[in-house]
Design brief:
Distance between the termini: 80 Å
Helix content: 25-40%
Structural class: alpha/beta
Number of helices: 11
Oligomer: single chain
Strand order of the largest sheet: 8-7-9-10-6-11-12-13-14
Bound molecules: thymidine-5'-diphosphate, magnesium ion
Number of strands: 23
Number of domains: 3
Strand content: 25-35%
Length: about 450
């Protein structure tokens, strides 16, 4: 067996025999790093055959041990995890530098430690003094969290086996390295091996493992997705408005629903939960209603949310008018504009169109179509929408409005916040239409409803 040197792309994971400035696999520049491995003898004559053993098979029916969950004491985090941390689960949390990952995890660690759990916080980036400083700032300095600065995975695994902690936080996985490999920390093979070793040790000792992951400049967790496949739960921590609001978003969860969100506010004493985010997103909403705004009743994961959709269609001096979108999909805006023009007879030619989701949330649901269309119509015709109303529904290319899921949940959240009426698609066959709903069949009806008001 000989030592081999390969060059692995940090973006796509493809390995190359020679170094080059550009990865032939994905075209990324300067992404190859050297990795040293042991080449195994090729299969064929002379190769030793490894004898396997038959695997014991079982059935779906059987004793099901209930997953033991522990509340982190932070309700917004519990919600995102699917009801607390599951025993033995591995959670990866990614986010931009400075978004508050270390702060959130220190708060979580301190909360659990205060409840008598054995919690270890290992940092590869900061000194214990820096962590202590943060703890003082968060007023958590008395929590019995055990901290250490360490980057060697072998030492950490040994510590897990001895201490058997309930929770282990690794801040961050990119700084960890395994002595079994010669490549530098942060390279693909180091990441893979270090994570594998940590997960193995944590599962063997029923430890919940939380890994902090760095993100690349386009917002993905650094490393070619290997980490995301290996762990049970992937969470992104985002700062969408660029100020104090922080949003936790589950991307993958083997122990609960994905696409769940948790909302926090960064304050001087650390991250504060925002249990009622609709109120923040509607903070500046004026119910006397000027033209160009519509309240969309959204569903993020399992959580209903009210957000304000703002549109402005202003006369343009450009040959090709601008179409600018913040918080929604540019292509969907083009589609809604085209449908309004073709099926509703409203022309946006010669106008710049701006669309903004207030509060900085990113909306992906097609259910927002109707709210966007309503805001656009209201802006171009300078008429207000019916007061105290929320709007949701998907627009098809024919101009008809399609019903969306969880109408009742959306209505309930709307009513809780004082929006008693809703404009949405007519109910599906066999379902009764609640009195609060003004049914809209197509964009023509939407335009008529807005005008009549
Ligand atoms: P941090 O948790 O270190 O971010 P990350 O680990 O994701 O890189 O958070 C750093 C930012 O949070 C920093 O800009 C200061 C701010 N912050 C507060 O506003 N209040 C606080 O109590 C703390 C601890 C940090
Ligand atoms: Mg940090």
């Amino acid at each position: 067996m000989a030592q081999t040197t390969t060059y692995v792309c940090g973006q796509c994971g493809q390995s190359h025999k020679k170094w080059s400035g550009k990865c032939a696999g994905c075209g990324a520049w300067n992404s190859l790093s050297e990795e040293v491995g042991i080449a195994t003898a090729p299969a064929g004559r002379g190769a030793k055959k490894v004898q396997g053993q038959q695997v014991e098979l079982t059935s779906l029916v059987g004793n099901m041990a209930e997953t033991q969950r522990t509340s982190t004491g932070i309700a917004e985090l519990d919600r995102v995890l699917g009801g607390g941390t599951a025993q033995g689960a591995t959670i990866l949390i990614g986010g931009d530098p400075g978004v508050g990952k270390s702060t959130l995890l220190l708060q979580t660690a301190a909360g659990l430690a205060n409840k008598g759990r054995n919690v270890i916080y290992i940092t590869g980036e900061e000194s214990p003094a820096q962590v202590r400083l943060r703890a003082v700032r968060l007023q958590l300095a008395n929590a019995p969290v055990k901290i250490a600065t360490e980057t060697n995975v072998a030492n950490i695994c040994k510590t897990i086996a001895k201490e058997k902690p309930n929770l282990l936080v690794i801040d961050s996985i990119q700084t960890m390295w395994s002595p079994a490999l010669e490549s530098a920390p942060g390279t693909v093979s180091q990441l893979r091996l270090a994570t594998q070793d940590l997960i193995h040790a944590a599962k063997a000792n029923n430890t919940t493992l939380i890994l902090v992951g760095h993100v690349t400049k386009d917002g993905q967790i650094a490393g070619p997705r290997v980490l995301e496949h290996m762990v049970d739960t992937v969470i992104y921590f985002e700062s969408e408005r660029g100020d104090h609001l922080r949003i936790l978003r589950t991307v993958k969860n083997r122990f609960g629903a994905a696409h769940e969100i948790g909302v926090f506010e960064m304050q001087t004493q650390g991250l504060m939960e925002v249990p009622n985010p609709s109120s923040i997103f509607l903070e500046a909403h004026d119910n006397s209603n000027t033209g160009g705004t519509a309240i969309f009743a959204a569903i993020e994961g399992t959580r209903p949310l009210l957000v304000e959709v703002q549109a402005l269609a202003a006369p343009s001096s450009l040959a090709i008018p601008r179409r600018a979108v913040v918080g929604w999909n540019q292509n969907r805006l083009s589609m809604v504009l085209a449908v309004l023009e073709a099926r509703g007879g409203i022309s946006f030619a010669g106008r710049d169109v701006f669309l903004n989701i207030a509060g900085g949330l990113n909306i992906t649901e097609p259910a927002a179509d109707l709210a966007v269309a309503a805001a656009l119509i209201s802006s171009i015709n300078e008429c207000a929408l019916p007061p105290n109303s929320v709007i949701f529904g998907e627009i098809s290319l024919s101009g008809s409005i399609r019903p969306v899921v969880q109408t009742d949940v959306r209505l309930k959240e709307a009513q809780r916040l004082g929006f008693d009426y809703a404009l949405t698609a007519t109910a599906k066959k066999g379902e009764t239409q609640p009195d609060a709903i003004t049914p809209i069949r197509d964009v023509g009806e939407l335009i008529a409803t807005i005008h009549n008001d």
